[in-house]
Write a structure and sequence with these properties.
single chain; Rossmann fold; alpha/beta; 2 domains
């Protein structure tokens, strides 16, 4: 899902309401858990209460939220149980967005509210590998934010970055950078036990 417009809009509204510089918030608002953003820019506020407030604003805002071209085809090309969603959003928000977009909701999801540390810490990706029952080094991550790339690399995983939120110049830590998910191709081999991924 590309929810960049919604995320930016709601964080700006929140920042203005709390008399916090919106630009300060926007510099860190993508790919990082809301609770960590709030703790950083507004340590005087009740972070949990503010997260609930922002998530409620986001979950009801579909303006500009869209399915990325190639997303449905990509997730359907990987067998169920072989992929996961690792998100800086909470489970309710992530599931709601996928259902709204009529995209498959994976059996395995690692949302922000089910880890003790968020990206760029490797914990979310390491938990996903554990739930998938695979070695981190056998995982491939698709990310759109520097914090997520750093988290995946720290977990020992390969990363393909997509330039949907940040320009390629800010995604250089990834192993490969693509402009669209449609550029990523998955081929199942060895009775579906091995996945070959290429970018074109």
């Amino acid at each position: 899902m590309d929810s960049t417009a919604s995320v930016a809009r709601q964080w700006r509204k929140w920042a203005e309401a709390k008399k916090i510089d919106p630009e300060t918030v926007m510099k860190i608002a993508h790919g990082v858990r809301a609770i960590e953003i709030i703790r950083q820019v507004a340590p005087h506020l009740d972070a949990e209460a503010e997260v609930r407030r922002i998530e409620k604003m986001e979950v009801n805002d579909h303006d500009g939220v869209a399915v990325m071209p190639g997303a449905a085809e990509l997730v359907r090309s990987v067998a169920e149980g072989h992929w996961a969603v690792v998100t800086s959003g909470r489970r309710h928000l992530a599931t709601g967005r996928l259902q709204w977009a009529k995209l498959p909701v994976p059996k395995i999801m690692v949302p922000a509210d089910e880890v003790s540390k968020g990206k760029p810490d490797p914990e979310p990706y390491l938990k996903a590998a554990e739930l998938l029952r695979v070695k981190p080094s056998d995982c491939l991550v698709i990310e759109d934010a520097p914090a997520g790339i750093r988290a995946a690399r720290a977990a020992g995983m390969k990363v393909i970055a997509i330039t949907s939120t940040y320009p390629a110049s800010e995604l250089k830590e990834a192993d490969a950078v693509v402009k669209a998910l449609a550029e990523i191709h998955v081929r199942n081999e060895n009775m579906g036990k091995l996945l070959r991924v290429s970018t074109k």
